[in-house]
């Protein structure tokens, strides 16, 4: 192997071409973590400078320092957790229902022909429906309290999770399944040891999209008949044209999305360490 690599280097040098080093990580990009932080800091500094210099209107964007001061007021008054705790409860409960049902349904579609024949057309019909448009219907069915909010978030996360899951099951390498069959593994063992681990990367990728949709639907649900919640807070700030409070609510949602993405990243590193 060493002789082969040496001969390849000699050939490339003789032909005048630059050497292409093999990347043992499978061409996996490894971005430095600090780059994202630097981008955020530079963007915030640019907005701060623009608002102070006057070429960004105060009616367009508030000063980041004013938004930070609004965070301090929310924290000291206790309103931050009064709005955040109900939102987190709705997000966790609704997303847990929708994701768990979506993964189960997607696996059934991927494994069983009758489930695929019966459920794929139904999922295809439900998937394009704008979920926010169904909020009045869920209010009629479940009332204006928490049940309608849970139902909207669950339904919004269900269909993309189903599509991602059965697509991931379909993309499992069939040669691995045939290899398991040739070694005499049972159907259940093949599913547990080959199909589900092979589908997990696609399922987790779909989970990122589903949870992002859940945050969007959370805000929409809380803008209708909720006294507390990030969506209700943003709606109230927008009605008063209080940009500092409005952007504080938007930043909270953004941080929530970053935290959710980070949690999924931790799960990926824990469950998908075999890919490294």
TrEMBL record:
Keywords: Cell membrane, Membrane, Transmembrane, Transmembrane helix, Transport. Residues 84-268 form the ABC transmembrane type-1 domain. It is a multi-pass membrane protein. It comes from the Bacteria. PROSITE patterns: ABC_TM1 (PS50928). The keyword Transport applies. Its main location: membrane. InterPro entries: MetI-like, MetI-like_sf. It holds the Pfam family BPD_transp_1. It is found in: Cell membrane. Belongs to the binding-protein-dependent transport system permease family. PANTHER family: ALIPHATIC SULFONATES TRANSPORT PERMEASE PROTEIN SSUC-RELATED (PTHR30151:SF38), ALKANE SULFONATE ABC TRANSPORTER-RELATED, MEMBRANE SUBUNIT (PTHR30151). This is ABC transporter permease. It comes from Roseibium salinum.
